[in-house]
Amino acid sequence: TTAPNTLFKITRKTDGISAAERERIVANPGFGRAFTDHMVVITYTEGRGWHSPEIMPRQPLVLDPAASVLHYAQEIFEGMKAYRAADGGILLFRPEANARRFRKSAERMAMADLPEDLFLEAVSQLVSIDRDWVPAPEVGTLYIRPFMIATEAALGVKPASEFKFIVIACAAGEYFSKESATVSVWVEENAVRASHGGTGTAKCGGNYAASLTAQMEGKAHGCQQVLFLDAQERRWLEEMGGMNVMMVMEDGTLLTPPLDGGTILHGITRDSLLTLARDQGLTVREERYAIDQLYSDAASGKLKEVFACGTAAVVTPIGTFKSAHGECTIGDGQTAGPITSRLRQGLCDIQFGRAPDPHEWVKRV
Ligand code: PLP
Ligand code: COI
């Protein structure tokens, strides 16, 4: 595939909301609803490659009702954030890791290969034009959603020959509503998220559609997230509906499920936290951990802290696990443990440009 040699065609929104209205929204954005003014659209046509890159006012898409994405779910996405630094500058966190993962997802779903520099350019362009939508650091971040859909009108089951790559963004506060510092997690014992050879390591929309019944069941039991177990034995912790999971043991070891089974999303937050933990002198183990072990370690006090991690979740402590068979509390159930807090602080300090960045993760827009 070829990168377009034309620059982005830019059409600015002229009938937008007032600056005062935008500031009101950005000061209290919630998650996933406070959309910015613009979007990026780049088109792919077989034989021609990626072309016609545009930045335009955010608007509904026109799709043929036979577009492949609507029938066979040829769709992938990314989730990343822009952070406002104390000096007012805007920072991206490891954006090239998102660009790389996007290519991997595209490959798994037989979609067009998007050059990483084009992905990065599109994200930077959108953040630049909508920079007034990036909240103050004490409020939140700009959540950026790059995605690709198959737009070819054809009902034959085959890879599409036409795609659109689109980037939208929204001002975002906390992903979880803050009734408590911790969240409750439903342990799903029936439905699985991914199996060997499946699409678990791809960030494709279908994985999330398939997680929703478990998420609903969890919600009915008062839980905000769902934990999935492995498909073969329904025993080993994998990950949650939209985030990875980590445990802190009595001896201070940080434990998280390994990626080699090919069923877990390769979280960029996960990878960053493992690096930070090693930097902070913690022992890190990427090892399988069984749900019955979690219950007995929580009861005996061997398991001290558990948290969810991801772009949206950042680092969110888990206070309770619930399943059809009962309930188990982690720590005091109410507050973040010391290692969870230290890792979250260390990560956020780098992301917002408040701390040195030894791994060169942060890119200024
Ligand atoms: N696992 C799933 C299923 C996710 O949706 C996400 C969020 O993107 C993650 C893990 C964490 O990935 P990252 O840290 O790259 O956001
Ligand atoms: C993200 O963290 O970016 C995700 O895609 C997860 C989703 C639950 C918002």
UniProtKB/TrEMBL annotation:
The modification N6-(pyridoxal phosphate)lysine is found at K203. SUPFAM superfamilies: D-aminoacid aminotransferase-like PLP-dependent enzymes (SSF56752). It catalyses: L-valine + 2-oxoglutarate = 3-methyl-2-oxobutanoate + L-glutamate; L-leucine + 2-oxoglutarate = 4-methyl-2-oxopentanoate + L-glutamate; L-isoleucine + 2-oxoglutarate = (S)-3-methyl-2-oxopentanoate + L-glutamate. Pathway: Amino-acid biosynthesis; L-isoleucine biosynthesis; L-isoleucine from 2-oxobutanoate: step 4/4; Amino-acid biosynthesis; L-leucine biosynthesis; L-leucine from 3-methyl-2-oxobutanoate: step 4/4; Amino-acid biosynthesis; L-valine biosynthesis; L-valine from pyruvate: step 4/4. Gene3D superfamilies: 3.30.470.10, D-amino Acid Aminotransferase, subunit A, domain 2. Keywords: Amino-acid biosynthesis, Aminotransferase, Branched-chain amino acid biosynthesis, Pyridoxal phosphate, Transferase. It comes from the Bacteria. Transmembrane segments: none annotated. Its cofactor is pyridoxal 5'-phosphate. One of its GO terms (biological process) is L-leucine biosynthetic process. Pfam families: Aminotran_4. Its EC number is 2.6.1.42. GO terms for molecular function: branched-chain-amino-acid transaminase activity. Belongs to the class-IV pyridoxal-phosphate-dependent aminotransferase family. Acts on leucine, isoleucine and valine. This is Probable branched-chain-amino-acid aminotransferase.
